[in-house]
Amino acid sequence: MEEENEEKVREKEPAKKCQQGIFVTETTLANPNGSFNDNRPRFDIDKIYTTDKCIKYNVRDYIHRFIQGDGLDLFYIKRKSDEADQFTNDFKSKEEVIKEIKKKQDDFRKAFVQNHIDVRLFGSTLAVDDKDTHTKITGPVQLSYGIDLLGAQIKEAQIGTPFSTEDDDGDGGGQTTLGKDKLVDHAMIAYDITVNPKNAVHSETGDSILKVEDLEYLKEGLVFGTNMRKTTSKNTNSKLLLMVTFDEGNHLNIGELKRLVEVKSKKFNKSEDISSTPKFDLTKLYQKLAPYIDKIETIKLYTDSDVDTKTDWDEKISPLKEKIEEEDFAELIN
Hints:
This protein is an alpha+beta fold. Helices cover about 20% and strands about 30% of the residues.
């Protein structure tokens, strides 16, 4: 029992080690992140891309639904007003939420950080009062925009409603109302993850506001929050998460990593291909990491159970093997 308690205390300690990572998702016949203009999948020149916001939403939503409580609450979520019922979308304003926090604790900034895991992870810019006093926190965890690694294309699917338009007499009986869904055919979207605990520190102690346990919930939220966000238009699944932890004191960022993951499985072009096994080649990624081996503590590779990875090991990158720990996604919640 003492060992268990000791472990729980240790997890709540401030994070001290820099990390970098890659998160890869697969989208099939769906819209991974529609634009605000017309809800088309986001597309630039020749690449499908997504914003960091859609992944942060998945993390927040997962923590809100399944984890929150005792310092793991969320600030950036919708809160229904006291007068709203289950069928009414009437939400509290930012000012109302701030007033509620101030009533519970005099030191707003301290409560803001201590109670809200999303602030500790992703930071915040917030006008606190009528005097326009700002609380600005640079998030220790930064996510890049996601880019497609597979050459996905945008497709349109025609859809209809069960209601017809009015005919010329205004009596109904006209044609069925038609619309279009815009989606991608098949995308593997990769994100860079950067963790720098020194981005935001407590002024009194110099310790990071980020806790070690926050990073465990981050990984869980990335993987299962993405998988849980299931609608007809949001059919995206987590496939690979790799996190590199540097030794304490090595404040490193070795540059973008996501483009170094090579997709070796084929993009599907007929219905029977949709269930094919995703395959990733990590050789170029490990070639990038190899020169930093003396500064790397661990490389943790988490994958979905249907994923295959391969690496062409040579003398240059083979020493990394002793740093790599491979686990199934299921281990994140065990």
